[in-house]
């Protein structure tokens, strides 16, 4: 059994971005990672551009200027100014080549077709140079950049409509257990409705992962082996719930050993989710989680989601953590690290009732988890604690 921090380090070391790309429209690429450098096809701005509404000047030593023309944003004509002349100009409009400064309209006095400057102006003032943001053929965004709304706007402003991004991983979700039946089916004595697959599908889709297949497997060794072997062969990441403990009908561990999957760790000193398995076969990453739903979701957020982000090219991703003042007392039993469902509000965090790994009701009300490390025994009201922000 290894500590939480060691499990996180092993995943960071072992999980690398997929060396596959896909072409996406810029608009549809938000949240994905650039697979290669993007070069600017034009200068941005593509011409000398006015930074404000005012007057473009051909500077001279006097404060009087004759206004000879007007240039609006989008105008394509190029008035020629002589020394001491000006043109009315607007934000974003092209600055004539013969103008060498722009003065804001609030700093002049207008008299007929003349203006009088009320302050001095320097050469180049209020003019955005051609290529100020990026010059043609230079790198606009580097490989590994995450596409945000701002990046979408920036790339679109360069006229770029398609980019190559890291392909998101294909994911196989395998749920084990004879006791499970699908919601909507008759519920006979001794059976329970299967919720892990729907929960994980919802989480994955909400985080932008859509290439997901789900299979339910009975507690049968031959069936477990067959389904796992095929899933590991077909997917970049396989996520298994249940069957990883050491009960008489827990066949996942034996099947992974026989396939074989290289075990990188098994069992983490944590609650919930102690019997967590992580391993690899070639380039496929395999997580086997306990079957209890709250343990499944805790392990998904702490370990699986960061691994998915790394596979998708975001190698620097870390699940967000902050410090917040606790509104609750809590005494820990045993020496395991704990992830406690909690509600974060107005900079304070409340540890919720009902922390059992089998219970989802509390998780449904939570927007965060309080992390208590192995060496800590209790939390006191008013104490600063580490809070993990759940991505969805």
UniProtKB/TrEMBL annotation:
Residues 172-310 form the MoaB/Mog domain. This is Molybdopterin molybdenumtransferase. The keyword Transferase applies. One of its GO terms (biological process) is Mo-molybdopterin cofactor biosynthetic process. CDD domains: MoeA. Gene3D superfamilies: MoaB/Mog-like domain (3.40.980.10), MoeA, C-terminal, domain IV (2.40.340.10), Molybdopterin biosynthesis moea protein, domain 2 (3.90.105.10), Molybdopterin biosynthesis moea protein, domain 3 (2.170.190.11). One of its GO terms (molecular function) is molybdopterin molybdotransferase activity. Pfam families: MoCF_biosynth, MoeA_C, MoeA_N.
């Amino acid at each position: 059994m290894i500590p939480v921090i060691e499990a996180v380090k092993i995943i960071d070391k072992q999980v690398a971005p997929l060396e596959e790309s896909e072409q996406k429209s810029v608009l549809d690429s938000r949240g994905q990672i650039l697979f290669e450098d993007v070069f600017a096809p034009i200068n941005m701005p593509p011409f000398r551009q006015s930074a404000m509404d005012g007057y473009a000047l051909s500077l001279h030593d006097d404060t009087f200027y004759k206004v000879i023309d007007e240039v609006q944003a989008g105008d394509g004509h190029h008035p020629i100014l002589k020394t001491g002349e000006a043109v009315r100009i607007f934000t974003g409009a092209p600055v004539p080549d013969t103008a060498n400064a722009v003065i804001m309209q609030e700093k002049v006095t207008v008299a007929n077709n003349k203006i009088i400057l009320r302050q001095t102006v320097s050469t180049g003032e209020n003019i955005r140079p051609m290529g100020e943001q990026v010059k043609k053929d230079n790198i606009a965004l580097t490989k590994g950049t995450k596409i945000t709304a701002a990046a979408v706007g920036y790339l679109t402003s360069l006229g770029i409509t398609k980019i190559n991004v890291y392909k998101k991983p294909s994911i196989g979700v395998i749920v084990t257990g004879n006791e499970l039946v699908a919601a909507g089916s008759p519920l006979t004595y001794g059976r329970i409705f299967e919720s892990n697959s729907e929960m994980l599908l919802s989480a994955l889709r909400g985080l932008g992962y859509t290439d997901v297949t789900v299979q339910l497997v009975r507690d049968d060794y031959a069936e477990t082996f067959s389904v796992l072997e095929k899933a590991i062969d077909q997917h970049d990441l396989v996520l298994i719930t249940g069957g990883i403990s050491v009960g008489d009908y827990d066949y996942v561990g034996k099947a992974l050993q026989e396939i074989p999957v290289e075990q990188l760790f098994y069992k983490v000193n944590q609650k919930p989710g102690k019997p967590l398995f992580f391993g690899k076969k070639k380039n496929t990453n395999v997580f086997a989680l306990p079957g209890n739903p709250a343990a499944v979701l805790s392990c998904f957020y702490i370990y699986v989601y960061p691994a998915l982000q790394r596979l998708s090219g975001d190698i620097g991703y870390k699940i967000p953590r902050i410090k917040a003042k606790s509104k609750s007392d809590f005494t820990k039993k045993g020496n395991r690290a704990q992830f406690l469902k909690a509600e974060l509000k107005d900079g304070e965090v409340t540890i919720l009732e009902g922390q059992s790994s089998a219970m989802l009701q509390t998780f449904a009300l939570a927007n965060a988890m309080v992390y208590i490390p192995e060496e800590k025994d209790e939390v006191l009201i008013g104490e600063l604690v580490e809070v993990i922000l759940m991505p969805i």
